[in-house]
Amino acid sequence: MTERVEHSSILHIHTARERLSELSRQAFEAGEEEDFERAIALNYQLLTEEPSREGRIMICFNLGNIFSARRERRTSVEFYEPACLHDPSNHLAFNNLDNIPQELEEPDRARKAYELAISIDPHYSDAHFNLGVYLDSIGEFKKALEHFKTYLRLDTTESTWADKARTHIVGLERHLSELMK
């Protein structure tokens, strides 16, 4: 009889994991299809059923992304912040959180978040790019220039973001040389 109970217990765990895996797949697909209402509902369901702390943190991160895509910035912060709090090494959550305060006209908070993302992962190129944009906007041109150059060193792809970084670098170098005259 003990053998049967153990087998049943293992089967239950396996079935529960399969269910969570299927819900995760459906939530991801809904997000990719921009069916945000369905993606939100599935992620909320996952939050109630996910047994692991790490899994719940990732679901919070996903919900932050969904609300951000819907331009519901304050709601996205409510999900990014717990993801950052419970996983201080999650540079992706910090970077996504970083962009929101600037949009909500809280630029000092954005700067701190960009700097925190870089302190967690100095090789995270997007945080350098974002901090460069912020520093340029407040007139800290030399620092901005360094962050754009760091971005290009770290992100060797030939993306449109790399082109934007090069454009910023050219503009900043021109501006700084004019200031030196």
List the helices and strands and how they pair.
Elements: H1 2-32, H2 36-49, H3 53-69, H4 73-86, H5 91-103, H6 107-120, H7 125-137, H8 141-154, H9 160-180
Helix pairs in contact: 1-2, 2-3, 3-4, 3-5, 4-5, 5-6, 5-7, 6-7, 7-8, 8-9
Characterise this structure:
The protein contains 9 helices and no strands. With 181 residues, it is an all-alpha fold.
Keywords:
disordered N terminus; 181 residues; mainly alpha
Give the CA-CA distance, first to last residue.
Answer: 89 Å
Number of continuous helical runs: 9
Helix content: over 70%
Regions with little confidence, pLDDT below 50 for 5+ residues: 1-13
Structural class: mainly alpha
Computed CA radius of gyration, to the nearest angstrom: 21 Å
Largest sheet: none
Fraction in beta strands? under 5%
Compressed to H and E, one letter per element, the order equals: HHHHHHHHH
Choose one word for the global shape.
elongated
pLDDT averaged over residues: 81
Number of beta-strand segments: 0
